[in-house]
Amino acid sequence: MDKFYAGLMVGFFLAFSMVFGFVQVNLGPYYKDIVAIKPAVDEAYQVTHSEKFADVRGLVVDVKAASEKLATLPIIGDGISSLGIQDYAQQAIGLMDNAKDISEGMVPLVNNAILAIEVSAWALWVSLILVLAGIYSAYGGKKMLKKAPARAAKKARKRKKR
Questions:
Q1: Is the pTM of this model over 0.85?
Q2: What is the domain range of residue 94?
Q3: Overall number of domains in the chain
Q4: Terminal CA-to-CA distance of the chain, rounded, Å?
Q5: Which of 32, 59, 117, 134 has CB 3.0 to 4.6 Å from 9, enough for a Cys bridge?
Q6: Separation in Å, CA 99 to CA 40, 45, 56, 161
Q7: Mean pLDDT across the stretch 34-61?
């Protein structure tokens, strides 16, 4: 039964090491780039969640609302409508909302990528050590330790005979 548990341990940690090895192979080469981009992502998040950004967005919304009201006036309404201010304001609002959504998504993405790379390096080493420990316990363990002095003595006797 000991070999069963040792085999289970070897199989589990071998699969574990394959998963984290996959992370290291695919994301590991980009670690420096991801760490270098983190300050820019944090800054983008701070800008898109600042009061000034909200004020500018509010100003664009107000310009759109004012242009819609002015477009209903008989004399200048056709000119305002032909300029397409409402369309440009709507596009600007959409771009600002997209920038805010992207910055909200990038912060956890970058943080999780950095965490995955850093954790996978240590997890890979630990899982490989535990695979070796499982192999050792399945194919030797205490028996190998007990037989080691006897083997050494046997080799010494063979050397003396020569």
A1: no
A2: 2-161
A3: 1
A4: 43
A5: 134
A6: 13, 9, 13, 83
A7: 93
